[in-house]
Structure formats: C-alpha cells, structure tokens
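Q: I'm writing a short methods note and want an example of a predicted protein-small molecule complex. Could you take the sequence and the SMILES for zinc ion and return the bound structure as tokens? Please keep the output block clean; save any remarks for afterwards.
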Amino acid sequence: MAQKLKHKEPTSGQAPATVSNLPTNCKADGCKKKSEKMDFCAEHYDWFKWGLITRDGQKPIDFDKKYQSFLKHKKAA
Ligand SMILES: [Zn+2]
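A: Understood, no commentary inside the block.
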C-alpha cells in the first residue's frame, strides 16, 4: 500500500515581509496612504508633478522654494 509522502515544510517565520517597501503605498516620506499614481497618493502625485518630490520620494534641494510657489499656486487656484 503506497502512501504519499508529504513534504513537511517548516511553518515558522511565515510572517509577511516588511511593510516598509510595499509598492502599493505612497513613496513620500512619512506618508502612509495608498498609492494611486506612480507610487504616490493623489496629494503627493501633485507634489511630484510640481517637482516637490522626486520619483523616489526624496525632497529636492530647493524644496522650500518650490513648495512656496506650489502654495501660491494652490491659493490662486
Ligand atoms: Zn502620499
């Protein structure tokens, strides 16, 4: 009588990988929202379009300057 051998795999350590780098979350620093476009949430995608944030979620050197014009534009709109 043949009995199928069951490969027993260790089930320990089955926790999901770190959540810090999930592509479904907004890349912006400290942002916990879900990404909607280009790995950014709607708000930070706006930032990306304005150059306030790089593709990798980093702030550019002249962030402050850009952020000010961004705010001005938002007020004017
Ligand atoms: Zn975001």
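A: Remarks, as requested: Helices lie at 42-49, 63-76. The chain has two helices and no strands.
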